[in-house]
Amino acid sequence: MIKVNLLPFRAERKKENIRQQVSIFVLSIIFVFFSMYYYNVSLNSKISAYNIKIENIKNEIARYNKIVKEIKDIEKKLDVLNKKTSVIKNLELNRKEPVRLLDMMTSMVIPKRMWFTRLEAKEEVVTIKGFALDNKTVADFMTRLEDSKFFDSINLTTLKQQKYNKLTNLKEFVISCNKIPLKNVDTDKANK
Question: pTM for this structure?
Answer without folding.
Answer: 0.50
